[in-house]
């Protein structure tokens, strides 16, 4: 089950590696979560990830919504977690295709914010355009999510559209055999030749800067790095300690300001 503090609340579930929700200058993913929690007092948000630094990125939401914004480790019982949630919020700016499929199989709408000129669930969910779960405007996504959270009948009606959104094992076998033997399939594959990769490149560049890569190396392979690349290790270590000092100082100033204001 979920943590005890949210056991009696409607749960919006989300999760994945942190790079999928970072790199967006507008912080739209976090704005969506904040808006939904602000407008729905009986709703809790759960983010599952194995990234150890995840809590720090959600700190402002955890502080603003105590016991309603929770970061947990990834779970082996993912399907049951989704079944006990009311909505799945896809990651942004980089969405998760497999998680969207899991959510659909569990009968939970995978609300997805797309970047311009993209349909991230195209080829992931069958007839994705008819499901009404993809949005180009984050305010429209928030509006739809609020309606789904407040109107159970409407939500159940929308969830019924997911029944055939993911190909079954039997249909997959049959279709694969048909492709191999007859070179055809009942499923149409649409290839978009106008896919723009600039937004994807920009997100990855922001998330995987040389400093972040060095930081990761210090944390995970510090013995090897210090032995074979001592100069890189020294530079990355200095970077890591400097950023840690900045974070500690910033947190201390924030706490001191809160004490003064109270």
Terminus-to-terminus distance: 37 Å
Largest sheet: 6 strands, parallel
- What share of the residues lie within helices? 40-55%
**Poorly predicted segments:** none
Report the total helices. Answer: 12
Radius of gyration: 21 Å
The overall pLDDT average reads: 82
Helix and strand string, N-terminal first? Answer: EHEHHEHEHEHEHHHHHH
Beta-strand proportion: 5-15%
Write down the overall geometry: globular
Instruction: Quickly give the structural class.
Output: alpha/beta
> In which order are the strands of the major sheet placed?
3-2-1-4-5-6
Question: Could you explain the architecture of this structure?
Answer:
- With 262 residues, this protein is α/β, with parallel strands linked by helices.
- It contains twelve helices and six strands.
- It has helices at 28-39, 54-57, 59-64, 78-83, 97-105, 128-131, 138-150, 152-159, 169-182, 198-207, 210-228, 230-261, and strands spanning 10-15, 43-48, 69-72, 87-89, 110-113, 134-135.
- It has a six-stranded parallel β-sheet.
- α1 packs parallel to α7 (138-150).
- The longest helix is centred in the last third of the chain and has 32 residues, at 230-261.
- It is globular and about 65 Å long.
- The mean pLDDT is 82.
In short, what is this structure?
By secondary structure, the protein is α/β, with parallel strands linked by helices.
SSE diagram, text form:
Layout: E1 10-15, H1 28-39, E2 43-48, H2 54-57, H3 59-64, E3 69-72, H4 78-83, E4 87-89, H5 97-105, E5 110-113, H6 128-131, E6 134-135, H7 138-150, H8 152-159, H9 169-182, H10 198-207, H11 210-228, H12 230-261
Parallel strand pairs: 1-2, 1-4, 2-3, 4-5, 5-6
